[in-house]
Write a structure and sequence with these properties.
This protein is mainly α and 303 residues long. The chain has one domain. 74% of the residues lie in helices and 0% in strands. The chain has 12 helices and no strands. Helix 1 runs parallel beside helix 11, helix 2 crosses helix 9 and helix 5 crosses helix 7. The longest helix is centred in the C-terminal third of the chain and has 31 residues.
């Protein structure tokens, strides 16, 4: 398949997988019963550890072919692209709806453009700058509309999602600039080889080793985590790394086009409330992402 066609196939598949990850995080936490089955630290640590085991098994030989000079960037990419976000999203969804998390995640292309311009020297147009301003306004509107429509939820936790988005945006620029010649599987495996030991430490510090894994509720949560690991982390991460390499950081991050729709659909099906102003804010964010990703193709970052 031609690269021009393949990139859109990757885009749609990733949107469906990652758009579904927010409801899976919610279910893994056990929030449907009003109580947390797992803490955010336990969920994040287990997700990294299980994904690390899978990727080490299937990707170790590929990782060994990577240059040792890439190891530092593989570690940094692992921290920004996976380690920090898995905990940030888990903490965020203890207070805000999964649909809102999915929609706020669509600000990644906007943040990618900002960081790409400031840190990595990627050019941008006035229209793209306008898109960033509009998008950030939409994100703020979504947060305030959520606060009004769901006064029992602490929307300050939406800040965790935005921090995670900054991590994702930094990661796509790092992959494009510093890991362009490393195979996608080697990047994914390398990421987890470096961050899995950190996740093991977090699991022990959060008493994850003392959980009753024979408990049906915990087993149910683990089932959701396994699905998250196989599809939302392992398969999607390899695919996303490839997408970044064959396109650009901003195009790759436009996977968030469809993610809000998928995330919102799952949220509504799960009984989450969503008001008119949140809908308007969502439309504003998506419009801004269109401006940023379509207005002007940025120059690829160079070493």
């Amino acid at each position: 398949m031609e690269k021009s066609q393949l990139k859109y196939v990757y885009l749609v598949i990733l949107s469906l997988i990652w758009g579904s990850s927010f409801i899976l995080i919610k279910k893994a936490l056990g929030q449907e019963n009003g109580n947390l089955t797992l803490t955010p630290l336990q969920l994040g640590a287990l997700r990294v550890i299980l994904s690390g085991v899978i990727l080490t098994v299937i990707g170790l030989s590929s990782f060994k072919k990577a240059s040792k000079s890439d190891y530092l960037w593989l570690f940094i990419s692992g921290l920004l692209g996976t380690f920090f976000p898995v905990f940030l999203f888990a903490y965020a969804q203890t207070e805000i709806d999964s649909a809102v998390s999915g929609i706020l995640n669509s600000t990644v292309p906007l943040i990618t453009l900002i960081l790409g311009a400031i840190v990595f020297g990627i050019s941008f147009s006035r229209v793209q700058l306008l898109g960033v301003i509009i998008g950030l306004g939409g994100a703020i509107g979504l947060i305030f509309a959520g606060m009004e429509g769901n006064p029992d939820q602490n929307y300050l936790f939406a800040g965790f999602v935005l921090i995670a988005c900054c991590c994702y945006a930094s990661n796509v620029n790092i992959i494009k600039r510093y890991l362009q010649n490393v195979k996608p599987l080697a990047i994914a495996a390398g990421n987890f080889i470096f961050i899995t030991p950190l996740a093991v430490i977090v699991l022990f510090l959060s008493d994850g080793h003392s959980l009753d894994y024979t408990n049906p509720q915990i087993q149910k949560s683990l089932g959701y985590i396994v699905v998250l690991c196989i599809f939302g982390t392992v398969a999607a991460k390899i695919m996303f790394n490839k997408l970044v390499q064959i396109t650009s950081p901003v195009f790759a991050s436009s996977v968030t086009y469809l993610m809000p729709v998928v995330g919102l659909t799952w949220g509504i099906l799960d009984g989450e409330s969503f008001n008119l102003w949140q809908g308007i804010s969502t439309a504003v964010i998506i419009f801004a992402v269109v401006l940023v990703t379509r207005a002007k193709k940025e120059k690829p970052a160079t070493d």
